[in-house]
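Human: We require from you a protein record containing the residue sequence and its fold in token form, and nothing else.

Assistant:
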Amino acid sequence: MSQKKASGELTRKIKRKTLSLGADLVGIASPKAMEKYPDQYQWIEKILPPPGTNAIIVAGVRIPPSILETSRENPRIAQFSTQGLYAKLIQIAQDLSLFLDDLGYRSAAIPTHLPVPMTAEGLGLKAEVSHRHTALEAGLGNLGKNGLLLTPEFGPRVRFVSILTDAPLAADKPLSKRLCNDCLKCVKACPVQAIGEDGKVNVFACAPNILKHGLPGLVRFATEIAKADLEKKKELIRSPEFWEYWQNLNTGIFYYCFECLRVCPIGKKKKTIRKQK
């Protein structure tokens, strides 16, 4: 792992550039801080060849709360917004990588949502590095009951992208104030009771609901087709459900539940954004 001396001037320059590219939040995490997550740290060590990663830039883009208010009646609006949000994060990561390259530094962006490793262990749900954990270590927020990162500005209504780099950037300190107020609104709002009052999230209950026309649903639907007779197969292939799978596979957007994001009160009233140092 690279151990270059951190440059405050370069750090400020990179943060200003990240914000100018459209990010609402930016922070720097130390690779050393990620050692507490061994399954992620091993990738942080491997992705950039020696001398390796010296800093992790984390950029966040907000989700407007108004978008989520429509999600129970019609998830299409929130899905469309999410698609645009991820496209923006991808563009920020690409442009920032080019900027770092122009400055003579190497970088590697971790995918925002797809693709992720399709392994039996990860069940196709787990990326090499968790953006919520890099954001946590970069001081952008802390974890709530729903397992998502809460930020002072936007609560959980933020998506992140992480860029590994060998640039000598100064790491931010984790946020000391705990943001979750234990209101349990996310626990009560979850339609499949996947969120426990102890803060543990049952991903095997959440995934079939939030990804009902993603991989978990596709496995179930394919199994149903395989077991059906010829006429039933024709009926299933002509069904709106099959068309929904086709549409999702084309767009790459599979989320059908936004309840824990929608009801969380953190960040809804705050109008100011922290000044980036």
Notes: Strands lie at 25-29, 55-62, 107-109, 142-143, 149-150, 158-165. The mean pLDDT is 92. The chain has two domains: 8-179, 212-251. Residues 75-102 form the longest helix (28 residues).
